[in-house]
Amino acid sequence: MHLRALPLLLALIATPLYAAHPVLEQRAPIRLTAQEKSHIHLEMRLFLSATQKIVIGAAANDMKMLAQAAREGGMAAAHEVPAGLRAKLPLAFKQLGHATHQGFDDLARDAESLGDANHALQQLGEVMSHCVSCHALYRIETRH
Ligand code: HEC
Fold first, then answer.
1. SS3 labels along the chain
2. Partner of 65 for a Cys bridge, out of 22, 57, 115, 144, CB 3.0 to 4.6 A?
3. Domain boundaries of the chain, sorted by first residue
């Protein structure tokens, strides 16, 4: 590519981004302390790790590994949410979080009783719709 075309190219890429600026951030802020944010982020990394192991387990048709991974995202594995943090979380946020833990438990139970990796992946897709919804709705804001 000729170098003179570069500014034009950059402008073409940047313009739609800037034009869309007002809608770039539509998530509702949840105001938390840095520690509360860390609590949520830790929980999230567990979700991500459980999700990864479920996919690996399904691909290997290792239903035992899959069920164990799903339990890691379930109710029993959830960290106790401190009362102060709980009070700051919107109801819809708590419901989505609850549905996610519940979904992982359902997945684990069905994986053990049905032993069907495809079914487990279908359930994972449903569980992950909660990840997608919540991430589209909320962001965390901390004060410095
Ligand atoms: C109830 C709401 C909710 C659900 C459900 C949810 N998340 Fe999150 N997630 C969040 C919020 C809020 C953040 C932090 C956003 C911010 O910092 O602004 C986050 C952040 C993350 C992060 C980044 C963590 C870090 O350390 O930076 C990962 C990874 C993540 N989520 C994965 C997942 C996965 C995978 C699922 C589903 C299995 C999931 N989340 C479900 C609300 C949710």
1. CCHHHHHHHHHHHHHHHHHCHHHHCCCEEEEECHHHHHHHHHHHHHHHHHHHHHHHHHHCCCHHHHHHHHHHCCCCCCCCCCHHHHHHCCHHHHHHHHHHHHHHHHHHHHHHHHCCHHHHHHHHHHHHHHHHHHHHHEEEEECC
2. 57
3. 29-142
